[in-house]
Every structure is written in structure tokens, then in C-alpha cells.
Amino acid sequence: MESHQEKLVAKITNLYEKLSSLEDLSPSNHVNTLFTNLVATCLTPSDIDVTKLSERVQEMRPKLIKLCGKAEGLLEGHFSKLIGSHAYPLDHINVFPYYSNYLKLTHLEFSMLQKDCTKLPSRVAFIGSGPLPLTSIILATKHLIKASIHNYDLDSSANAKAEKLVSSDPDLSKRMFFHTADIMNVSSGLKEYEVVFLAALVGMDKEEKAAVIRHLAEHMAPGAFLLLRSAHGARAFLYPVIDPCDLQGFQVLSVFHPTDEVVNSVIIARKNPRPILSWNQEFDSATLPPTKCSELQCFNPLNHGNLFEELAIDE
């Protein structure tokens, strides 16, 4: 008899095969139904560890993540164009089907940040903002109502769509900025930000993600906060996973794994206040914060069954 985990992996594999056979992942009834089923399947409570699955499944997983990333970009582009067609786009932003999820995720991230950040930041960067920068918009309108938010994306057309959403708003048009750039080519500019958000799909595999994190560790301001989106359990079939132990040059402050409809895990880290060596040199162990990834204390701050892990930090 198949175990719950085997049934779960078999269903995800079956959905991957259907999605990978499609020539077009643009929003349609068929595409939307497949991805809705996939997300619902991956939100099923499970203690699955994707690193311990069969080689065949582990080879399939990054391909599925890339399919999800492509489809997510197309979905956001479609709705950004639709919302941007209105005279006052922000009045219609809630038509995006996952808007309520973004509200919950952004509230969660801001609440976690407040716990460790003694004052509200005035300059924030969001890396990988895309054509529909919902997190930035929600932050700017509900949580950081005076901060300037700088959005970075590789795609100039995505930035053009995003900028159109806020251009008619007298407040946001002065506080939200859009930069078309590869973040790996941005160095001194990163020191201007007190908080940097890294989107889940910046760095689609472990090596790319690690390279981006190393770059941020080298160029962010000492003491600045880094907020990363990861995935846990079966949700790791939808997004890349970040191991907190891989955040060299940062002090990992807390990790949160949602168990509701919010998909992404959240990691909050602080740039090591001491200077670090260039990443093309050997690290002296004295430059790294003594984060104890093995010492996790779990508790529940939101009282609805979510898992929050506070990492023991020696200052």
C-alpha cells in the first residue's frame, strides 16, 4: 500500500507531466486548473524532505519550479496589464487571485521584521519585483507608509508595467522606484538600504541563489536586514529552498514555516556588522557569526498552528 508521501509525490509528478507537455503556460482555464491543483497538493500537510526523495523526483523538482516561475510571471504580467488599464489601477489591485495571500505574507514579514528592527526603515530594496510588485505596494501603503522602496528587476517591460500601476498615485509615484538591472551588477548601491527583500524566484537553483546571497553579503550595509522567501515540506516543489546555514556573512534571526494557504517560508537575517573578506578570498572563521543552525526553538506567535523557529544567536 502506498504511503501518504508516495501518493503526494505521485500526484505532483503527474501534474508536472501534464504541465510540461503544454506549449503555452499563459493564463487559461486549463492552465489555471492545473496550477490550482498543484498548489493545493503542495499545501497538503506533510513532513516530506525533498532532499531524501528518489533521484528521479529530485531531477524533476527544479524543472517543475522553473515551470511554476514561468507561469507565475505570465500570470502577473496578464493581471498587471489588466489592472494597469484602469485610470486608477491601485483601486483594482485586489482582482489578482492571490492578492489575499500577499496581504498575509507581507503582514507576516513585516511583523517578523518589527521584532528585530528597532526603527522603521526609510529605504528598502525589493529584488525581483516583476510586473506586479504586490509586496512593495502593500508595504508602501499599509506598513512602511513613509519609506522609499526601490524595485529591481532584469526585465524592462516588467518594470514598465509595474511603474504604470503606481504612476497615477500622488504618494506612491514619489516613493516607489524601478531599476532595470541584474542585482549581481549592483554593488555600492546596495549599501543605501536598511532592508533588502529577496524574491523567492531570484536564483532558481541552489547555486544561483547562493551566488546572489554571497553578493548581498559582500555589498549590503553592515547591520542591514535581509528578508528571504524559501519553502518547506511539499511546498519545496513550488519554490527553491534556502538553508539558513548557507547564509554566511549574515546572522540568521528567525525562520517561519506557514501551515496555512501562504506558500512561502520566511527567513530574517542581519548582515554581519563586522567587515567580511572579499568572497574570492578564504574566510577567516573569526569574521563569521556563530549562528547555531542546530539549535532551534519552536513556538507559535500567530496562534494558528504555524511553525516559527528562533535561531540561537551569540552576539
UniProtKB/TrEMBL annotation:
Q: Give one GO biological process term.
A: nicotianamine biosynthetic process
The name this protein carries in UniProt is Nicotianamine synthase
Q: What class of enzyme is it?
A: transferase
Superkingdom assignment: Eukaryota
Task: Please describe what this protein does.
Answer: Synthesizes nicotianamine, a polyamine which serves as a sensor for the physiological iron status within the plant, and/or might be involved in the transport of iron.
User: Would I find Ribonucleoprotein among this entry's keywords?
Assistant: no
Q: Which UniProt keywords apply?
A: S-adenosyl-L-methionine, Transferase
**What EC number(s) are associated with this protein in UniProt?**
2.5.1.43
Q: Which PROSITE patterns match?
A: NAS
GO molecular function annotation? nicotianamine synthase activity
Q: Give the family, as the similarity comment puts it.
A: Belongs to the nicotianamine synthase (NAS)-like family.
| Catalyzed reaction equations | 3 S-adenosyl-L-methionine = nicotianamine + 3 S-methyl-5'-thioadenosine + 3 H(+)
Q: To which species is this protein native? A: Corchorus capsularis
